[in-house]
Structures are given as structure tokens and as C-alpha cells.
Amino acid sequence: MPETPFDQTLERILAYPEGPDGAQDDGFVVDVMAGVRRERGRRRAILAAFGGVGALLGLAGAILLADPVDALFTELLSGTHIMQAALLVSGAAAFYVWMMGDDLSLER
Question: Would you give the end-to-end CA distance of the chain in angstroms?
């Protein structure tokens, strides 16, 4: 039982209403579900709007970065640079295996 008038008012507001004959009112449930559907639609509209704005900003960023990315693939990732990178990676892996050779041994 609520102790303060505020708690009593809150419990009365949140109570599930009963019909005149003591049965539960189905109209209340229908109204609540309609409100839930309306809020779900509002949430979907908000998510779609912000998703669209994010997609447009992403597209604008991709357009701004198109030239630097093109330069990356045409100039920096040419055959000579790829071979140098492969040599560097394989050298680093060989150095790691040489330094950590004891840690890589398999024990039975």
C-alpha cells in the first residue's frame, strides 16, 4: 500500500483500468498498443533520417578521398613498392623467428 499521497496518485494513474462490471477493459490495451506502434514508427523515421544523413556524409567523404586513394593505388602500390614491402615483411618475420627461436619450439 502506498504511503504518501504522491504514491497513491501514481499507483492510481499506473493501474490497469477495470470496466464497469469489474472486467478488464480491452480498449486500454488497444490504445497502449496503438501508442507503441506510433512510437515504433517514429523511431524508424528518426533512424532512417539519421542513417540517410550519415550515408550522405560518408559519400561526401569518399568523394573527397577519391584522389588520394587513387594516388595510393597507382603510385605507392606499384610493383617496386610491393616487392620492397614483401621483402621488409619477410625480413621482419625472419628476424622475429631468429630472436624468438626458443619460444617457438614445440614441446611434447
Answer: 70
pLDDT digits (tens, 9 = 90+) for 44-54: 999 999 999 99
- Provide the residue ranges of all domains of the chain, joining segments of one domain with +: 13-65, 78-108
Q: What is the pLDDT of residue 13?
A: 76
SS (H, E, C) the chain: CCCCHHHHHHHHHHCCCECCCCCECHHHHHHHHHHHHHHHHHHHHHHHHHHHHHHHHHHHHHHHHHHHHHHHHHHHCCHHHHHHHHHHHHHHHHHHHHHCCCCCCCCC
